[in-house]
Description:
Layout (H helix, E strand, L loop, with lengths): L1 H7 L6 E5 L8 H14 L4 E5 L5 H7 L8 E3 L3 H9 L8 E5 L6 H9 L2 E6 L3 H22 L5 E8 L7 H8 L4 E9 L3 H6 L14 H22 L1
Parallel strand pairs: 1-4, 1-5, 2-3, 2-4, 5-6, 6-7
The chain binds adenosine-5'-triphosphate (ATP) and magnesium ion (MG).
Magnesium ion binds next to α2.
Amino acid sequence: MIETLLKALPSNFPLIINLSHQKGGVGKSTLAYNIADAFRNLGFKVRLLDMDAQNTSNGLNALRKRAFTDIEKVIDKRRLVEIINTSSTDGSEIFIIDSGGFDLALSRLAIMGADINLTPVGDRVTELLGVVQKYSQTLEEIETTTHSSVSSYVLLNRIHPFAKHFEHIEEMIENSPKMAMLKSVVRERAIYDKSFIDGRTVFEADDIEGQEVAMDEILSVCYELIEIYLEKG
Ligand SMILES: Nc1ncnc2c1ncn2[C@@H]1O[C@H](COP(=O)(O)OP(=O)(O)OP(=O)(O)O)[C@@H](O)[C@H]1O
Ligand SMILES: [Mg+2]
């Protein structure tokens, strides 16, 4: 199944994935940095665009012994438009955008330019409200002003390793226009912060406990994104 998906993907390159939420600290940078490495490990040519005012992806890269060469800091709309417009001839296969935690014109542009928007969120009701009320309203505003269609997939992140029932969350998300829920869930794992000490991803942290489960969760997100993208056609 996964092999079939991976084989089908190249004829649909590039795939632009945007990690986006107006709320800070939900895991956009953590996930962008690790999802980018998952795709590198699957053999794809990746480009990670760091639009985060916190400079997280770029900052982590600076901590590395050997820096990734495919991370670019993007701070203005002109550059982002240029990258999106030339993405099909750029040679990169997967673009990952690490959006900042603000509702800025730049982040709205990324939402419009992406093939898939991914919105990380925790499982607390108050956090979920921020998505189903505020974030989905942003999507509707974008649609109204641009007459284009935008949507986003909610990715549950930092979920307790033993938590099992997400039906109430699913209902909240699915009832919200423009939002759908990813089946994959990323759990709260200490390995993210530990591996970040020297700018590593979980894929490089074979000395840290919990690597296998963390890698599996990130890869499951990647496979699901590919599936969604190929289904959209
Ligand atoms: N699944 C996880 N397990 C454990 N810690 C996590 C997980 N996801 C994120 N974190 C931690 O949560 C904190 C916030 O994450 P991150 O910086 O990625 O959020 P962000 O959405 O990019 O924030 P901002 O909007 O401020 O840029 C970080 O310390 C990160 O290591
Ligand atoms: Mg960030």
